[in-house]
Amino acid sequence: FKRQASRPSKLQCEVAASLTRIGWKYKFEYATSEGFSLDMAQPESKTGIEVDGPWHYLTSKNGAKVLNGSTKFKSRLLRCLGWTVLH
User: Fold this and answer.
1) Do 55 and 17 contact (CB within 8 A), yes or no?
2) Which residues are within 8 A (CB) of 56 and not within 5 positions of it... i.e. 6 or more apart?
3) 23-48: average pLDDT
4) pLDDT score recorded for residue 19
5) pTM over 0.85
6) Which of 63, 58, 59, 48 is nearest to 15 (CA)?
7) What average pLDDT does the chain have?
8) Quick one: what percent of the chain has pLDDT higher than 70?
9) Which residues contact 4 (CB under 8 A, 6 or more apart)?
10) DSSP states of 16-84 as a string?
């Protein structure tokens, strides 16, 4: 779900720099034809990376961190469209 103009986080920029150093070719802040925004993506292989900050997670009863509902929903929709999304 693409909202307004993106403001990449410091962590997102650090992950992008690391991927560049290892030679992983990607598009930064990629928007799919369906309107979904991915932090980094290889559209040809439909592989996306989402650098999720703490607001994308909930804490379960046993203390484990789990993706929140909207983040899970976006990932499921992208998966239905043939994308592999890594968090």
Assistant:
1) no
2) 50, 67, 68, 71, 87
3) 96
4) 97
5) no
6) 48
7) 91
8) 93
9) none
10) HHHHHHTT---EEEEE-TTS-EEEEEETTTTEEE----GGGEEE-TTS-EEE-HHHHHHHHHHHHTT-E
